Automatic annotation (TrEMBL):
Alphabetically ordered keywords of this record: DNA-binding, Transcription, Transcription regulation
Similarity section: Belongs to the LysR transcriptional regulatory family.
GO terms under biological process: DNA-templated transcription
Taxonomic path: Bacteria, Pseudomonadati, Pseudomonadota, Alphaproteobacteria, Rhodobacterales
SUPFAM superfamilies noted in UniProt: Periplasmic binding protein-like II, Winged helix' DNA-binding domain
Residue span(s) of domain HTH lysR-type: 4-61
Source species: Frigidibacter albus
Entry-linked InterPro entries: LysR-type_TF_proteobact-type (IPR058163), LysR_HTH_N (IPR000847), LysR_subst-bd (IPR005119), WH-like_DNA-bd_sf (IPR036388), WH_DNA-bd_sf (IPR036390)
Key word DNA-binding present: yes
GO molecular function, one term: DNA-binding transcription factor activity
Protein name in UniProt: LysR family transcriptional regulator
Coiled coil stretches, renumbered: none
Amino acid sequence: MQNFDWDDLQFFLAVARTGQLSRAARQLQTSHVTVSRRIDRLEAALKLRLFERNPRGYELTTFGRRLIETAERIEAETERMNVELLGDSIGQRGVLRVATPEGFGSFFSTRLLPRFSARFPNILLELVTLPQILSLSRREADVSVTLDPSKASPYISDKITDYSLHVYGARAYLDRHEPITTREQLLEHRFIGYIEEMIFAPGLDYLGEVHPGLRAQFRSSSIFNQLAATKLGEGLCVLPYFIASQHPDLQIVLADKVWLRRNYWMTCHRDVRPIARERAVMTWLAEAVRAEEAALIRGATASVS
């Protein structure tokens, strides 16, 4: 076996974690050609095939899975040395892709992004708000914020917060109609909601929980299209408190009788959790979101940090 360049291990780890040359190249801020060349060089030096190439990307071979444990130990020691000797965590830099539901993505951008940028100035954040078409198994995202915990064994999910939802209507719409005092009266109104066959998480199926007879007359896969239709007086809609509370022209209907609760979970592949960058961001995000409980849950009090 030839001597190999230890620096090639960071290319190996990036491909192992992302499953794709292009994603690995983006993380390492280089070209996919360079990544491919470094992987080929490492395999030639070790005289071992570390990856199987297929249409889905790069998958570790048995030898690759053995090497990853050693490579991660070397990576961890390198990060520790940077902290101790240079006072800087090299892990808190590079590209990080986070997939979130549309609503949470907006919440992050409006309330948390400035703090994130101040805390992690060297991380290039990619926020993707179409998680239903992203695959953690193909490493199209490093971390996902989801409405339900993952039940698959390669993934780890941690609950980060609850949030409340309520039935809302435009004040002008409600002024034109008789007061609503019971759930049965909701059946007399048009409703706005999701396209049923496009609901990508069970937690988004609200209407049956409000009343089993409810059906949406206007449907959209976008929570913000639903919000716009509600503000225009097209009907009533179940909306997250953290979104609807920002619009004074909306009013809660049956505030004390209809109250839904959902959760957000942070999910990642178990291979991702040991990475310093992902670990630091996940810890920070969980703490930052929990501190915003008063904005997420109607009636909650602000956290004191």
